[in-house]
Amino acid sequence: MSDSKGARVSMLRVAVALGAVYLIWGSTYLAIRFAIETIPPFLMAGARYLTAGALLYGWSRLRGAPRPSLAQWRPAAIIGALLLLAGNGGVVWAEQRVSSGLAALLISTEPLWIVLLVWQRDRRQRPGGRVIAGLLLGFAGLVLLVRPGSSSGGLDPLGVAAVLIASLCWAGGSIYSQRAKLPSSQLLSTGMQMLSGGALLMIAAAITGEPARFALAEVSARSLLSLAYLVVFGAIIAFTAYVWLLRSASAVLVSTYAYVNPVVAVLLGWAFAGEPLTKGTLIAAAVILTGVALISSAQGKKEEEPVAVAEKVVAEEAEAEVCAAR
Predict the structure, then answer these.
(1) How far is it, in rounded angstroms, from Cα 257 to Cα 19?
(2) N or C: which end of the chain has fewer CB within 10 A?
(3) Dihedral, CA atoms, 79, 321, 32, 202, nearest 10 degrees?
(4) Helices (H), ranges, the chain
(5) Domain count for the chain
(6) Residue-number span of the structural domain to which 175 is assigned
(7) Phi-psi region of 128 (alpha: psi -120 to 50; beta: other; left: phi over 0)
(8) Which residues of the chain fall below pLDDT 50?
(9) The pTM is what?
(10) DSSP symbol at 125
(11) pLDDT at 302
């Protein structure tokens, strides 16, 4: 009886943690849109990650994590530049020009980029048939979404390009992190990446003249609350839930966030921000997310060939690092 009760409690914890990752990470796109209404984008993102990074770093050190060496700060800064400056910073900037739902849909292409980058790095790691089908579906969905005259509405080409480049940088940073020599403490490592990325975002804000355009008196309560939400829920609570899930549930189950988050983002953007929800967007979203689901399911096969094993390892490493940029 006690084993059965323990199993039910464990399953409930997994369900709660997975639900938190689904809802919180799916909602961060709308929170970003609200935050940048009165706070310049790079300045907002920099403040978010410097705050979250300082909290994670300080907590890890208080719990006994050793002080990182200068050699460990270098890869943390590279990952922070790819994931947070180019990745999240690109999304934040783009949300001035595209809807939060569209940004989430475009970011969901990240698993497609990971497979292609792994294949480019090592030609022996050729994707399997299911993964290739997923790639083709994913890119077909992109064409449906952004092609001129699509029923999803007039899309800003710079905004779309910025999100796609951000997704590619996320994928590249995730793959780089696979071999990076980082501290063994994952919380400490993530705190270092956030501190590095936050500092780089602040430099980007200074270069683009954002401090001169920022007026504290003009910041709305909605923007401040959204920024606090992004720090506490998006960067700390959801991340903690995700790290626990990686230890307590199958990687394939956890990876479903990649195609649930965009659905949540699209619905929230439609419900709370009046973002358009057209038939064309829904069709394109279904095609893209089916492609991502095919790739995820291919990684979950029990009898995997060496190539599929390599793809799974890369995907799991990517998921463990991408969460820092959500």
Answers:
(1) 9
(2) N
(3) -20
(4) 2-35, 41-62, 70-80, 89-94, 100-107, 110-121, 129-146, 157-177, 186-207, 210-213, 221-229, 238-248, 251-254, 257-272, 279-299, 306-322
(5) 1
(6) 2-325
(7) beta
(8) 1, 302-325
(9) 0.81
(10) S
(11) 38
